[in-house]
Amino acid sequence: MAAMLDSRWRIPGTSIRFGLDALVGLVPILGDAATSLVSAYIVLRALSCGAGNFLVARMLGNVLLDTVVGSVPILGSIFDVYFKANNRNIRLLHQHLAKADISSPRPAKHPA
């Protein structure tokens, strides 16, 4: 879902990627509201995966910044192309889950 919002397509001849967030954001008010709801859903899913309060606050901060700056006509869509709040949030969640996986005790393997 994050990739669809932030980096689904590539501008030919460049390494610049963009997604629905930048495109839908061109529709005043409704576009940014719609993508913000989807972004908030990603944060809620992170919470259900065990993300702590600090991580959720960082993720919500990314969504808020993306929503506020993204609501500026034209410049907001350009910002969306480069900031990629949803990709950032997924990366933060993956880092959190990797740390949790490393620090959690593993059951001992017993020969059968």
Task: Please provide a brief summary of the model.
The chain has a two-stranded antiparallel ribbon with strand order 1-2.
Set down the secondary structure blueprint.
Elements: H1 2-6, E1 9-10, E2 17-18, H2 20-24, H3 30-48, H4 53-70, H5 75-83, H6 85-103
Antiparallel strand pairs: 1-2
Helix pairs in contact: 3-4, 3-6, 4-5, 4-6
Give a verbal description of the structure:
This protein has six helices and two strands; from the N terminus they run αββααααα. It is mostly helical. The chain has a two-stranded antiparallel sheet with strand order 1-2. The N and C termini lie far apart (42 Å).
Please identify the structural class as seen in this structure. mainly alpha
The profile of the biggest β sheet is: 2 strands, antiparallel
The portion of residues forming beta strands comes to under 5%
Helix percentage range: 55-70%
Mean pLDDT, nearest integer?
Answer: 89
Strand order of the largest sheet: 1-2
Radius of gyration: 17 Å
Low-confidence stretches: none
> What's the end-to-end separation, in Å?
42 Å
Number of helices: 6
Order of helices and strands: HEEHHHHH
- Compute the number of strand runs: 2
Question: What gross morphology would you assign?
Answer: globular
